[in-house]
Amino acid sequence: MTRPSSGRAGPVEWAGLAVLALPTVLLGLDLTVLHLALPSLAVDLSPSGTQELWIVDAYGFLVAGFLISMGTLGDRIGRRRLLMIGGVAFVAASFAAAYAPTPEVLIASRAALGVAGATLMPSTLALISNMFHDSRQRALAIGLWATFFAGGMAAGPLVGGVLLQYFWWGAAFLLAVPVIGLMLVLAPVLLPEYRAPRSGRFDLLSVLLSLLAILPVVYAVKEFAKEGPSLPVLTAAAAGAVFAVVFVRRQLHLQSPLLDVTLFGNRAFSVSLGMMLVGLVGVGGTMLLTTQYLQLVEQLPPLVAGLWYGPPALMMMLSSILAPVLARRVRPGYVVAGVLGLSSAGYALLGLVGPSGGLYLVVGAFSLVYLGLGAIAALGTDLVVGAAPPEKAGSASAMSETVQELGLAAGIALVGSLSASLYSSRMDTEALAALPAHTAQTVENSLSGAASVAEEIPAPVFGQAQEAFIVGLNTVGWTGAAVVLVLAAVTAVMLRHVGAEDAAGPGDGSGEDRSGPGGAACAAGRTAADSAR
Q1: Counting runs of H as helices and runs of E as strands, what totals does the chain give?
Q2: Residue 309 burial by CB count (10 A; 0-12/13-18/19+): exposed, middle or buried?
Q3: Phi, psi values for residue 30, rounded to 5°
Q4: What's the rounded Cα separation, in Å, for the pair 129 and 135?
Q5: Using CA atoms, how far apart are residues 12 and 480, in angstroms rounded to an integer?
Q6: How far, in Å, CA of 375 to CA of 30, rounded?
Q7: Which H or E element spans position 49?
Q8: Among 150, 168, 380, 411, which residue's CB has the most CB atoms within a 10 Å radius?
Q9: In which element (H, E) is residue 512 found?
Q10: pTM to 2 decimals?
Q11: How big, in percent rounded to 5, are the helix, strand and coil portions of the chain?
């Protein structure tokens, strides 16, 4: 693939971006397509409440665990090559998940999908940095990339609803087959290959240390949310922290590190990562609860419930496209803070939802939540990737996607576990005692469990289960409103040095201008970070 002499991308590069949209949309879909399928899945496989959460978030946690390693591996063996290898592995794991006979097999298949997904995500974003050298075009391309991913997430419930209308829950996984098949055909024609010069050897010990740093923390987060502080939780968290320190020290002494930790000295880079992590925790958990509300409280069929996700999806896509444009004239930190303020109002609306008549309120609230997600994904990603030199784009992309995946998965674990705990505490033990032991345990586990045995229990018991679920949704809403409002204020302050007008100029076409939203926002961020050190 040849680049125009001006350094600006031509038709081939934009066609290549369309090819990258295929796995990007698929990865977004895979995060959310199961949310509407949980009730059907619960009937077929009878998972416990804990297994339900693992089925949903095992994918995201394994993606987060392997992204750093895979991002750097792509820099070494070739980003396009890794994309294609990962595509084949993703299809194989999708088949295993689609026909999983037990919850355990499905969880293992979702974990395998996470490892395969970790090969796809950094490759897509890093290749954009190779294809689009002009800073304005790159900002637009990254905004579109964020729109693809966010659109896939938003479309997940709708696609899941359509599939459940005509097929069984496993069909949701088979979407990967035609999507990845088309990508494998077009990628060698439209995508460039890139290997980082002087990349050095791939340090397997660093890979092991990165996993030992991330996975114990993942375990601690899940178990803390479910059981509270305990010796295993504290031990896992401490072990993760120790291995993280060892990992960082090793990276500082390696000539070719797995992760360039010096990037964290850039304020725009570090703050943007933190903003995405915290912001997406609330989105991940709220997404799970609202899909359950539509099906299990409003009693909407999967297809109709999926259609109600149309307005939130539109808000997310508009935000991911318009936020980078607005950031050309207004400081990116202020843009994100303003959108997060609206998102906080959305969370507050969830705190007002009652046991009936809350359909429009929930959809409106989640539309505002998704508005914040679009801005975080687009501007945060552009700031992070723009802070890195071209040869480190894979590593920076992996960090961006690691915190996004970890935030979404941690949100499902934390928020889901908090909601489940409140749900169980609100159930009437006397009413449950009158039921058969197995049925009572199923009802007490979760609202989706109660729905799976709804014909076996009295209507008042199921009504109480719905009310208990609403208590959890309200608590999550008010908590999210407070946290996101604080996040908005912190973002405005910490990113106030990243300029808008100063950053609006086009890149020089050399590929060395690693600028951010609207032109060179990330270059301004580096300057501000240097002055703030």
Answers
A1: 20, 0
A2: buried
A3: -70, -20
A4: 10
A5: 43
A6: 21
A7: helix 49-77
A8: 380
A9: none
A10: 0.68
A11: 80, 0, 20
